[in-house]
Amino acid sequence: MANPIKMRAKLKGEVTEVKALMSHPMETGRRKDKATEKLIPAHFIQEVVCTWQEKEVMKALWSGGVSKNPYIAFRFKGAKKGETVQLAWTDNKGESGSAATEIK
Amino acid sequence: MTDPKRRILLQGSLAAGAVGAAVGTGLLTPRAVLAAWPESAFTAKQLDDALKELLGTNTYEPSDRVKLKAPDIAENGAVVPVTVEADVEGIDSISIIATGNQTPLVASFNLGAGALGFVSTRIKMAKTATVVALVKAGDQVLSASKDVKVTIGGCGG
């Protein structure tokens, strides 16, 4: 897969913490290519959706202001060890990536 | 002599054509409604405009129930770690703003049922500025802010 996602979900007490690292250039569209002096076209993740038990736990809406190879962490309640958490992103060019991990 | 009945028939078919056209254009509107990513909020250059588009209000109240963690000095503005923690019930969303950026709204996290008031990410900052975290819960918007000194800007150009 071209855009691997590193993802981890850990249960502590009753709270699950999900951490993910996506691989993406996150170009704002305002940066110039130093060699050609031309603007590098915008290319950034706009939406990251995290689901657990077919429920949307978190949906991130991003601009190009999020750093390259974006990192995200969030917490939610209600999950058990061994259950699966899914994460999927979509960027402004319509490209997408997804991953799933087991809660440990 | 023209047949009056033929005239009536013509008028009737014209009217039906107009109705058909109205339905046709009506069918095109749902596609625009589906656009979920709030483009106008993210492209707004003024913070007030961005907040009105995103949250429906530009007023917010500083609160010690919202905690914002960011470095005092960011050596590299391209990667500034930001963590927001909020001890508030019924949070709808947590938004992160870098006031010095050309488009100040950086990210917004919509929290579903069961999600706690915690998000952590890394943002770009064009220059030394204030980072603001906004926590929307029902009708109230609570905030926390922190000044971050940026030694090398992270937006390029």
Please sum up the structure shown:
The complex is a heterodimer of chains A (104) and B (157). By secondary structure, chain A is mostly beta strands.
Proportion of strand residues of chain A: over 45%
Strand order of the largest sheet of chain A: 4-3-6-7
Number of domains of chain B: 2
Return Rg of chain B in Å.
Answer: 25 Å
Gross morphology of chain A: elongated
CATH topology of the largest domain in chain B: Immunoglobulin-like
The stretches of 5 or more residues of chain B where confidence is low (pLDDT under 50) are 18-35
Identify the CATH architecture of chain A.
Sandwich
Terminal-residue CA separation of chain B:
78 Å
Given the C-alpha coordinates, what overall shape of chain B results? globular
The low-confidence runs of chain A, each spanning 5 or more residues with pLDDT under 50, are none
Alpha carbon gap, first and last residue of chain A? 24 Å
How large is the count of helical segments of chain B?
4
Whole-number tally of structural domains of chain A: 1
Rounded average pLDDT of chain A? 94
- Average residue-wise pLDDT of chain B: 83
Q: Into which percent range does the helicity of residues of chain A fall?
A: under 10%
CATH topology of chain A: Immunoglobulin-like
Question: In the CATH hierarchy, what is the class of chain A?
Answer: Mainly Beta
Major beta sheet summary of chain A: 4 strands, antiparallel
- The helix fraction of chain B, in percent, is 25-40%
Written account of the structure:
- Chain A has a single domain (5-102), classed as Immunoglobulin-like (Sandwich).
- In chain A, 0% of the residues lie in helices and 52% in strands.
- Chain A has no helices and 7 strands.
- A 4-stranded antiparallel beta sheet of chain A has the order 4-3-6-7, with no helix packed on it. Chain A has a 3-stranded antiparallel beta sheet with strand order 1-2-5, with no helix packed on it.
- Chain A is elongated, with a radius of gyration of 16 Å.
- By secondary structure, chain B is of the alpha+beta class.
- The model of chain B is unreliable at 18-35 (pLDDT under 50).
- Chains A and B meet through strand 3, strand 4 and strand 5 of A and strand 4, strand 6 and strand 7 of B.
